[in-house]
Amino acid sequence: MTALPQPLRQAMLGDRGGALVLAGLGLAAVLVPVFNLALPDSSALHLPDYLVSLLGKYLCFALLAMSLDLIWGYAGILSLGHGAFFALGGYAMGMYLMRQIGARGVYGNPLLPDFMVFLNWKELPWYWLGADSFLFSIVLALLVPGLLAFVFGWFAFRSRVSGVYFSIITQALTFALMLAFFRNDMGFGGNNGMTDFKDLLGFDLQATSTRAALFALSALAVALGYLVCRLITGSRLGRVLMAIRDAESRTRFLGYRVELYNLFVFTVSAVLAGLAGALYVPQVGIINPSEFAPAASIEVVIWVAVGGRGSLYGAVLGALLVNYAKTYFTGALPELWLYLLGALFVAVTIFLPKGLVGTLPALNLAGLGNGPHWRGFWRRPALEKVKPAPGPRPQE
User: Fold this and answer.
1) Disulfide engineering: 97 pairs with which of 56, 128, 155, 197, CB 3.0-4.6 Å?
2) What pTM does this model have?
């Protein structure tokens, strides 16, 4: 904590949950690669390669959920299209990985990806130029989602679109992008998307060491993303955002340019989502238009709601728990997993309306759930005896 800059150190004061998350991410970044690379397969602590990639995918989802919590939990901006920024970052990285295949593709074309050869493309589109550079692709993965969020938010916030109307138009945005990327003439693989990636910066993506390194990078990205978000929310800017969330008209009356504050935090959130998508693609090995589906963005909202919005680390916790439950149910109960997940979401909405993080402080853990929150739920509190008002004092 003492090594952090002064503004960030002040923002982290009293943030025990965030400190625990950062400590957990640091431990995971070290222990997971060690348990995967250093321990033999016969060891009970050995982590197989597929589990390392699965955990890395969970961390990418955690970063995506945290980016949504930044705008929903602190600025009151509910986006139902945040998966669009995630997918754009993933496509930017996918373009680089496709260019790295070169002549090793099915058709052996050193310049054109396989899907372009199959569709009889004669030359590489202009927007693919520079995709063979890793640095350019990283900048693209951050710039494109940020630029789209800036332009979209500029018109939306200046028009004072908010609430459910903003949620609807963000959902329309991701749906329109999904339909566009499904088209073969867009030059992004159409329905099949991009896959069959070979290597990243010369390192084999199927190698155990590469998977472990990508996991460590994902953990580092989540930690840095958390620090950035905490720096914003713990500053004067964050207090203005919460004022806009709680009383936008009053904040505007006080002279604050509400649309500029919303535009800034919305753009930062989109950049974080694009970074999550760029880390996601090399670990999963595919990117296709299904990532733009509105249902995918709604699922991100569920992660944040389950963990507890307005805390940042609650979004991380919710993303990890829900995706782990999804993986467990699909393997253990493949016929019922959708119903079980639906029941989980309904139960959280009814019993934990503030999410896991918002409810835990109300639990008396020593009393095994007999805290004030649950005591009022399980039984009706006894009516207090009404004491009669004291009568007039007798005159002497």
Assistant:
1) 197
2) 0.88
